[in-house]
Amino acid sequence: AAAALLGPDRVHDLAEPVMGAEDFSYVLERVPGAMAFLGACPPGASPDEAPDIHSNRVVFDEDAMAAGCAVHAAVALRFLGD
Fold this sequence. Notes:
The protein is 37% helix and 0% strand. By secondary structure, it is mainly alpha-helical.
């Protein structure tokens, strides 16, 4: 759904699993699902050098939130059968 909406060049599979939120695995034991990450590093900043999400210095590219909302809606619509 994300690749169809945003384009395949903007969607990447992670090479290695990430623990992200270890309690989310309990949800996936009961219902099918997946975890996705939304890149929101500000333009001109390097993701490798920008403060991470839990830093008090983090700055988000708020325009990325629209893409995240659109992907969530696309996944829901696909699940419901459009």
